[in-house]
Each structure stands twice: as C-alpha cells, then as structure tokens.
Write a structure and sequence with these properties.
Distance between the termini: 66 Å
Helix content: 25-40%
Number of strands: 6
Strand order of the largest sheet: 3-4-5-6
Radius of gyration: 26 Å
Order of helices and strands: HEEHHEEHEE
Strand content: 15-25%
Number of helices: 4
Shape: globular
Amino acid sequence: MSRRSRVCGAPPVALLLVGAVALAGCGIEPTAVVESGRAANVLLAEPRSADVLYFVAPDGRLAPTVQRDPRVPTGALLGRLLSGPGTQERDAGLSTELPARTDKMVGPVRVDHGSAKQVTVRLPYFLDAELSDTAKDQLVCTAAVSVDGSARTEVVLVTEDGPTSPLHCPLAR
C-alpha cells in the first residue's frame, strides 16, 4: 500500500470519530423553555446624540440611556438622573447608586458653566455619607456629556457639605 492511499483513507475514519463524539454530546441534559417575559427595551446612545443619562448596568458599568424628550438644560437633566431609572431602564436591568430623593433635598440641581473645560454642579442636599465612585461617575458623566459630547469637561460636585475636587468622566473619549 502506498503512502498516498493510507493518507487518503484517514480522513473518513477521522470524520466518523468526530461525528460519534458530537453525537455523544457532553452530558448536558435538555431543558424545557423557560418563560421570562418580554425583552426589555431601552435606548442606548452615543453621547451627545441626545440628552443622555448614565445609569448602572447589572455588571456595574455605566450605561448611557437616551432621553426622548426635547433637549433640556444640564440641571434639569441631572434632576431626572436623581429621580432614578424609569420603567424602561429598570426593565432593562439598569439601576442607580445615587441616593433616593428625600426631604433633605432642598431645591433643584444648579449648574454653573465656569468655562468650556469645567462645570460646577450644585446638588440639592447634604450628603450623610460619601457618594460611591459609581454614583459620582453617574453625575459627572451625565453633566460632562451634556456640556461636551466627548465628556472631557471637568465637573465639580458641590453639596451642602462642600465641593469635590474636579472630577473626570471615566468614559471620556
């Protein structure tokens, strides 16, 4: 038998072995279909294509969501962020690390545009404890993107407890 005929005979045997292994499976039992309701719909956006709020995805990362209303000032947009995720965002698994609105909140969010490179956000409450880094990022990214689509604007958060040092959105391009 020539070498060529031995090589040509090998592929059919190999295919049979691969097919047998594939048919054997890997021990996973079949399961029935699990109903979990309809899929959630939420608009994710490229920054600056519309008003964008940043909520927290189930994996802990920030998730930009488009607001369908006409463009609003940065202060009003941050007020919406402080109200927490709406029904569509919650259905999509988004959440917030910002504190819930309480009677300690005394007025609207105010935004001072000091320059194109820095904006000051005055929040309407005392902070009983430090905001988590993710909560700060939610505020900073929402404010920065509303001012500059690249999110490079520095943001200073001011509460009744005082100002933070300038903060940057970790998603800045």
